[in-house]
Write a structure and sequence with these properties.
The protein has 158 residues and is mostly helical. Helix 1 packs parallel to helix 3 and helix 7 packs across helix 8.
């Protein structure tokens, strides 16, 4: 039998305040952590409400940071980011608002870097198969197929 770590609600609140002061957390992550600590559901909801009231947890701010970080550091496209946020139970409205904060130039640079890195691994980009590989790779990273296709044409088919 696996024993779960039990944390008192008052201690959990302090731990979560410290965690949220260091990094952005969404409501779902907080509730998951509280459940892992075997905090009763009613106390967990109260703790979450306190964290939201004191602005330790703000899902809108979390989404904006998540979107920015995934584009800049992980080179993810909109589709992959959207799926990750849906898994965290973020509402469609917040996801749409987060996408509104995307800098189009930054997004273009991320796509270009993904395509160039894959092109270096493929080698010759003159064949149809190699361009399909590039397109599939961009799609697997969450970039829109139409946008990726246009960039491949501009970058490699001169």
């Amino acid at each position: 039998m696996i024993s779960r770590r039990v944390v008192k609600p008052s201690v959990a609140l302090v731990k979560l305040q410290e965690l949220c002061a260091r990094s952005e957390q969404c409501s779902d992550e907080i509730l998951t952590k509280l459940r892992g600590w075997s905090v009763p559901e009613s106390a967990a909801l109260k703790i979450l409400a306190l964290l939201k009231r004191d602005r330790y947890v703000d899902d809108r701010r979390y989404v904006e940071a998540f979107v920015r970080d995934k584009i800049v550091f992980n080179r993810w496209g909109r589709a992959k980011i959207k799926l990750a946020l849906i898994k965290k139970h973020i509402t469609a409205d917040l996801i749409a608002d987060g996408f509104d904060t995307i800098d189009p130039e930054e997004y273009q640079v991320a796509l270009d870097e993904v395509l160039q890195a894959k092109a270096r691994r493929i080698g010759e980009i003159n064949s149809y198969e190699s361009r399909v590989k590039l397109l599939k790779h961009a799609a697997s990273r969450g970039f829109e197929v139409g946008l990726a296709g246009d960039r491949i044409k501009k970058m490699f088919l001169k």
